[in-house]
Amino acid sequence: MVESSRGRGPDLQNGLFVDIRKLRLVPNTTGFVRMQHWGDYEGYKASNPVISPDGKWMAFQSARNKEPVGVGHGA
Question: Is the pTM value of this prediction over 0.90?
Fold first, then answer.
């Protein structure tokens, strides 16, 4: 899981439109899979994703996009 604004176009690839994406760790793989749409809501971003040991659940922080790095609210 990675934090990314990739796929939003050049004007929106910044820390204000961050979503969680799944990235396969396979050589020559280019695909990202968007796992949630927090960045679609003005003023919000997602960060610090973790996956449960059984792979069934994801938890992440929700934050206002102007909050300092590391500040978040569980989601």
Answer: no
| DSSP letter (8 states) at residue 14 | S
Burial 3-25 (b: 16+ CB within 10 A, else e): bbbbebeeeeeeeebbbbbeeee
**pLDDT tens per residue, range 8-66:** 666 666 666 678 888 888 888 777 888 887 777 778 888 888 999 998 998 888 888 78
Q: Give me the residue spans of the domains in the chain.
A: 2-74
What is the residue type of 49? P
SS (H, E, C) 16-65: CCCEEEEECCCCCCCCEEECCCHHHCCCEEEEEEEECCCCCCEEEEEEEC
